[in-house]
Amino acid sequence: MFSKSIFNRVASKAAARTMATAAGTSAKAASSSKFLITGAALAGVTASGLLYADSLTANAMTAAEHGLHSPEFDWPQNGPFETFDHASIRRGYQVYREVCAACHSLDRVAWRTLVGVSHTNSEVKAMAEEFEYDDEPDDDGNPKKRPGKLADNIPGPYPNEQAARAANQGALPPDLSLIVKARHGGSDYIFSLLTGYPEEPPEGVVLPVGANYNPYFPGGSIAMGRVLFDDLVEYEDGTPATTSQMAKDVTQFLNWASEPEHDERKRQGLKAIIILSSLYLLSVWVKKFKWAGIKTRKFTFTPPKPRK
Amino acid sequence: MLSSIIDYVEELKDQFVPYVAKAEDDVEDSNDADEDEDEDDEDDEDEDEAKDQYDELKEECLNTEKGKELHHHYLECAERVQKQKEQPGYEDLEHKEDCVEEFFHLQHYLDSCAAPRLFSKLK
Amino acid sequence: MSFASVYKVLFKRNSIFVGTVFVGAFLFQTTFDSAITKWYENHNKGKLWKDVKARIGAPEEAEDDE
Fold first, then answer.
1. Among the record's GO biological process terms, what is one (chain B) (predicted)?
2. How far is CA C45 from CA A253, B63, B86, C12, C37, in A?
3. What is the DSSP letter of A260?
4. Chain A residues with CB inside 8 Å of C60's CB?
5. Which of the four pLDDT bands, split at 50, 70 and 90, describes residue B91?
6. What is the pLDDT of residue C2?
7. DSSP state of A172
8. Contact A68, A209 (CB under 8 A)
9. Are B85 and B93 in contact (CB under 8 A)?
10. C with B: 3 or more CB pairs under 8 Å?
11. Which A residues in the span 151-170 are in contact with B, Cβ-Cβ below 8 Å?
12. Is the Cβ–Cβ distance between A213 and A226 less than 8 Å?
């Protein structure tokens, strides 16, 4: 379709050009029409040749470049009235802390947001205090450090992007605060990516040095290796820590990080739908009520008696 | 000049004549497939006792009729590519075949078969 | 209560009428909200933080106190 339209454009341009030259020599009308036909034919052949040459170098968008489409999983929050599974978020934070946090930051999440979602106030306070933050300088102007507070954001593993790249052979581990919203397929994609590392890349695939193969990652070659292995973490609630269990929990946690308003949003949405639909029905009834008299009235015309 | 014309004709031929992959016959190949699966099993069992639920489901799906067929397709492609690799002048080939598509077909089937049943097995 | 008596009690004086609207809105809002929340939390029982807290909160708190 595309190539055809290009061809038409090229051909018609060439034809227009030959036409213009032909117009200049309108006196020799008979010979110029012959010239026109030859010119158009020549342009057509040239365009076909160019197009064919181009098609030899063109790279089609292959399945590998798109990445394998992730399947849909039965997430606890699937459905209009379903909340996140907060026990899963709690386990997911543990997986993030023990596994992902070695490379990935979570810049946009503050400690306080975890309170009442996955941890108690005192737990989060203790977690925050384990990290050091820059404090106001003392009276002599020397920089000081202080333990973290609830209002601080969760610190990342690297001080800046350069340090992150230097530690990962030039690849930048993306910030995970909004990763579920930032990737096509959302939670399904994240889960598939984490569990989808095959033992061997498909035969014939050549990977750059240091890269790993993951079919769900567009292009297939991903800097992150497989990180989740069975029994990598030990859950406090005794859940067996299989690879897919950890992947589910951490994805649920990251989905919460992307959409912290999720549970409240669905509750408010339910209220809004009930109120707005009843108000709509009420407005329909009011309209019918008001118009009933107008719609059912009858006009009669009694012609005056003609005077004689 | 002549060689480029021959290349051109070869390319045309490649476009019209597909690589033939047979799914049904060849008893040898299906044996190969079984062997591969067995190897996978052993590896997993060596690593851990409690198996991952997703892997279990996927293995179950691999043993369905369609899973076997797609796996066989993939193995046949892998074998073909292996053979191409052994040929002289493989490095200089302009187009090197890979088995990504076969792998995707298999994975896509395994996903669609295993994914809907997975989360009921997880906590 | 017939419509006439409702009219007499609530609608006749504007101050009472406006008051009725305000109080009515407030009462409706609170009951509606708590009813919805009750249903929503019952519908999602077991997944919410308060359930998780009840399940693992107590021993956790004890550890923190130590």
1. mitochondrial electron transport, ubiquinol to cytochrome c
2. 19, 38, 61, 47, 12
3. T
4. 120, 123
5. confident
6. 83
7. P
8. no
9. no
10. no
11. none
12. no
Average pLDDT over residues A177-205: 95
Note whether B69 contacts A: Cβ–Cβ < 8 A: no
What is the rounded distance in angstroms from the CA atom of residue A89 to the CA atom of residue A256?
A: 7
Instruction: Name the minimum distance, in Å, from the CA of A204 to any CA of chain B.
Output: 4
Mutate to test the interface with C, among A263, A265, A278, A279 (most CBs of C within 10 A): A263
Per CB-CB distance under 8 Å, the chain A contacts of C48 are 83, 86, 263
A269: nearest Cα among A81, A59, A39, A6: A81
Answer positive or negative: Cα dihedral of A258, A261, A265, A266.
positive
Distance CA B47, CA B63 (A): 22
Please state, as a whole number, how many other Cβ atoms lie within 10 Å of the Cβ of residue A38. 11
Cβ-in-10-Å burial (0-12, 13-18, 19+) of A239 comes to: middle
- State pLDDT tens for residues C47-64: 999 999 998 755 544 444
Considering Cα of A31, then A37, then A40, then A45, what sign does the dihedral take?
negative
**ipTM value of the model?**
0.81
Q: Which of A48, A68, A203 to mutate to test the interface with B (most CBs of B within 10 A)?
A: A203
- Closest by CA position to B79, among listed B122, B16, B22, B1: B22
